[in-house]
Write a structure and sequence with these properties.
The chain is α+β, with helices and mostly antiparallel strands. The chain folds into five domains: about 10-185, P-loop containing nucleotide triphosphate hydrolases (Rossmann fold, 3-Layer(aba) Sandwich); about 200-285, Elongation Factor Tu (Ef-tu), domain 3 (Beta Barrel), CATH 2.40.30; about 305-375, Elongation Factor G (Translational Gtpase), domain 3 (Alpha-Beta Plaits); about 380-485, Alpha-Beta Plaits (2-Layer Sandwich), CATH 3.30.70.240; about 490-605, Elongation factor 4, C-terminal domain (Alpha-Beta Plaits). The protein contains 13 helices and 32 strands. The strands form six sheets. A nine-stranded mixed sheet has the order 1-14-13-16-9-8-17-11-12. The longest helix has 21 residues, at about 570-590.
């Protein structure tokens, strides 16, 4: 690792995040800023420089925020620019919030062809709440369908940021990038905090290295950190000594000091993964700070499902992999779970379906883990007859209905930005999903509308995003926020396979949809579960009442094939023997349920 010596020169510091809706060009703009500041050469340049994971490159999305330091000159002064490229998808909004806490400014990137979208609005509001200075940046102005003037007016109308403040750029060709760098140096404030105060550094990310232990990415708010300093985590009181300090420029470079207002990473031979917590504050042991930094809002997980080891994967291997992954992704949580059908596993919490899918793929790729994943569910609030409140995230945890007064489901406020000619189709889709209409806003002269609905989260997490894209020919976008729990006519549907209840297939649904949803699920299960040598009944039941049934026929075997000629009683004897064998097998045999069967719960929600 090279030593970075340029940090000894006095310079001004600017810390900012790059925020935008998905596919509006954040990562490309980050690459272009690296090149404009001289951090990489034309020969080294390639797309998605800051997206390290194979998964990010394959999907063309940013999953993890990346913090980089570059150096530039403006009006005769030297500047250190610490910037963070953030994800755009709604599932990774927590990554954006964490990045904003480590900054004083934000570049809000808006596509010159698509204009303001749902996540543009959500990210802009998050930056305003964090007290950041925002520079609007209209990207992709070199495209034939670009309309920068109209998009600047949209930004002013929807977000209240003056249209003349917007900077027009093309991250792909480099047009306007010098103007953007100048605006960053002129318009963004310097770092908050005080150089002379006791050291306080915010941990905004962390990763695990097999050779060096935990690497903590920090933003020094007050004071500074030097190699050899002894420090304490203010959250748990654990102390360590700094063995190495560094920055990403964008390649790792060693430094002797991370000064006031700077961003970097520290190594301290931390082997216990649970000692480092994102959002915690680091202070020096011999001169501790009086109180920690505010940290982050508690994470609100929206979707839950179970992961069980399969194939050659052992329970402990899965646990170790999840420990390392949760260190790198603070919005992922897990706790032990036990199922009669699948054995020991974990109940996992995610921010959304894409987040769940990414975690599963990372476990399989980065740790060579084989898992069985159950269908996702949401959290429910149960009001018991003794007026106590219980939170459950699995249908199997629902108490006996005789002691339940109310079952409450999570509701979200959902904002949809769609073309005007798709309003009817989207309103019907939302009403079919039990949504309540709130308001409509028109976006200037852009032929687009903002629809706002309050809708149960359980109706959205399955296939709503796909339906939205289909109904709007790919032009619709959505954002949502949790607004609380509300009472609903909800029932638990148990699925019985060969008479045995399979908890992992149980679901909580609205009473009006229970029978139709159950029938679709049983039809899907019938397709996914292989035929056995005995007949397998599939049943859906509410309490003790069966509301739907399908039967998987047994595999036929011609036991009389070897009989030729002779008395018919010989064939009858073999047939009776086969019938007795099937009865015994049905009593003692077990049904093998494949992974696809658990995911059939998802597909059964489709109309």
């Amino acid at each position: 690792m090279a030593i970075l010596t340029v940090l000894s020169i006095p310079m001004q510091i600017r810390n900012f995040s790059i925020i935008a809706h998905i596919d509006h060009g954040k990562s490309t703009l980050s690459d272009r800023l690296l090149m404009a500041a001289g951090a990489i050469t034309e020969r080294e340049f390639h797309n998605q420089m800051l997206d390290d994971m194979d998964l990010e490159r394959e999907r063309g999305i940013t999953i993890k925020a990346s913090a980089v330091s570059v150096f530039t000159e403006h009006k005769g002064e030297k500047f250190m620019l610490n910037f963070i490229d953030t994800p755009g998808h709604v599932d990774f909004h927590y990554e954006v919030q964490r990045a904003l806490q480590a900054c004083e400014g934000a570049i809000l990137v808006v596509d010159a062809t698509q204009g303001v979208q749902a996540q543009t609005v959500a990210n802009a509001y998050a930056a305003v709440e964090a007290g950041l200075e925002i520079i609007p940046c209209i990207n992709k102005i070199d495209l034939p369908s670009a309309r920068p003037i109209e998009v600047a007016e949209e930004i002013e109308q929807v977000l209240g940021i003056p249209a003349e403040d917007a900077i027009n750029v093309s991250a792909k060709s480099g047009v306007g990038i010098p103007n953007l760098l100048a605006a960053i140096c002129d318009r963004l404030p310097g770092p908050r905090g005080k150089r002379e105060d006791p050291t306080r550094a915010l941990i905004f990310d962390s990763i695990y290295d097999d050779y060096r232990g935990v690497l903590a990415y920090v933003r020094c708010i007050d004071g500074s950190l030097k190699k050899g300093d002894r420090f304490t985590f203010m959250g748990n009181g654990k102390g360590y000594q700094i063995t190495d300090l560094g920055k990403l420029c964008p390649r790792p470079k060693q430094v002797e000091v991370i000064g006031h207002g700077e961003v970097g990473f520290l190594v301290a031979s931390i082997k216990d993964l649970h000692d480092v917590r994102v959002g915690d504050t680091i202070t020096l042991t011999d001169r501790p700070a009086a109180e920690p930094l505010p940290g982050y809002k508690p994470i609100q997980q929206m979707v839950y499902c179970d992961f069980y080891p399969s194939g050659k994967t052992q329970y402990q291997d899965l646990r170790d992999a999840m420990d390392k992954l949760s260190l790198n992704d603070a919005s992922f949580s897990f706790e032990p779970e036990n199922s009669d059908a699948l054995g020991f596993g974990f109940r996992c919490g995610f921010l959304g379906l894409l987040h769940m899918e990414i975690i599963q793929e990372r476990l399989e790729r980065e740790f060579s883990i084989e898992i069985i994943q159950t269908a996702p569910t949401v959290t429910y609030e149960i009001l018991k007859t003794d007026d106590t409140v219980l939170l459950i995230d699995s249908p199997s945890e629902l108490p006996d209905l005789t002691i339940v007064k109310e079952v409450r489901e999570p509701f979200i406020k959902m904002s949809l930005i769609i073309p005007q000619d798709c309003v009817g189709a989207l309103m019907k889709l939302c009403e079919d999903r039990r949504g309540t209409y709130r308001k409509t806003e028109y976006l200037g002269n852009s032929n687009r509308v903002i629809l706002e609905y309050e809708i149960p989260l359980a109706e959205v997490i399955y296939d709503f995003y796909d339906r939205l894209k289909s109904a709007t020919k790919g032009y619709g976008t959505m954002d949502y926020e949790f607004i609380g729990f509300r009472e609903g006519r909800l029932v638990k549907v148990d699925i019985l396979v060969n008479g045995d209840r399979v908890d992992a297939l149980s679901l909580i649904v609205h009473r009006d949809n229970a029978e139709a949803r159950s029938r679709k699920l049983l039809v899907r299960l019938k397709e996914e579960i292989d035929r056995h040598l005995f007949e397998i009944p599939l049943q859906a039941a509410i309490g003790g009442k069966v509301i739907a049934r399908e039967t998987i026929k047994s595999v036929g075997k011609n036991v009389t094939a070897k009989c030729y000629g002779g008395d018919f009683t010989r064939k009858r004897k073999l047939l009776e023997k086969q019938k007795e064998g099937k009865k015994r097998m049905k009593r003692m045999g077990s049904v093998d349920i494949p992974q696809e069967a658990f995911m059939a719960v998802l597909e059964s929600s489709e109309d």
